[in-house]
Amino acid sequence: MADTRCANPELQLDVDLMMLEYTFYHATQAQFDFLFSGCQDEDKAAEATRLLTIFDSFIRLFAQDHPSYEKTPEFHLNVKILELLVLLSSRSTGLQQQFSPDMSKKLHDETVENLKARRRWLIAHQRQAQRRGKQLAGSDATDVTDDVEILIYNSWTRHKSGSSVSSHPSPSDFLPRFLDLLTRFMEISAEIAALRGTPEEKWMQIACEFMLQASLESIRIRLRDSGNEDMFLPRLDDCFAWGYFDAPDELIGPDDQAHVDEELAFFNHLFRAPTNDGAVDESPPRENPTWTKLRNEYLSEFHIADDASASSQTWRVDRLAQKYPPESFQDQLVQFLKNAWDLAMVNKPVLVQIEEGHLKSLGVEGAEFDDFMVRVGLREDLNGSLKLKL
């Protein structure tokens, strides 16, 4: 029988969607497999790269053939999860060279914009604290006051590397740092919260340690390369610039107003205090006290003497790295993302289900599934399962 799917646009879309979902699923699963291996398995690294390349090619073709097709919010969420996994993988020795010059420049530009966004938040937050004359978070649960928080930040800027938002490294040398991944993690979390409600305390712990890991990485590089005027690194306060913020117009300059409004609308519900019944309390809105407490606990880990030497700072960073091993944190992060991905994948793609020997999403299992396989002309391999080769 002749293949007539291209003669029927509706059939072509259905088939292409199945292939898109199939390649997407296996590309994402391969990234998880590589990361769960500790980024040490060369075969898993090669397979992750191969399947990612296939998915990237297919999604480009899909966009060309179906330009008007609107993908679901869940699809876009899963794309962001895959992107974060790829960036995590790229930090390992196995996949560092996979970014093209154009992609490296794009990622670098995103880093610059993300850092600018954190500093807009910091400026507005400090103005609000001064205006209200009380603690930054506006909560009785706050352990770190405005003055102490500023003292912590200042104690880590005594030994500067000359970095600033305007000094850019070579985009061709770009390798994603924890702060780059942190912003993407917050974006994913905000979308999950919009779909599923207020984040749980486990998420807050991961997010707070993410800020700590980003800080340790940046401080370590800053101390190592002190005096390098070309360095472009976030400060400690940049890494911890996350939380609820109610921004009156007078606290923000007109040039930043549009940016801040968009950022607040997107991120604020991550940090806003819920009411007893789970609904958000709008009057007056305030920061979730659990987030305030955890954020301050992790920030307090950086409390050192104001006149601490560079060697003392290095000792503190080394101690914190032992207390919070980055490898252990990455395992927690990947597992969290895997759980989020599993929830988003309520039903596996149809072709993946067929590989597994069922169509549970359609209620087709057992003998009925075997009959279906015969009718569509598919056969199991010698191991008793069907594998669609990518």
Automatic annotation (TrEMBL):
<protein>
    <submittedName>
        <fullName>Uncharacterized protein</fullName>
    </submittedName>
</protein>
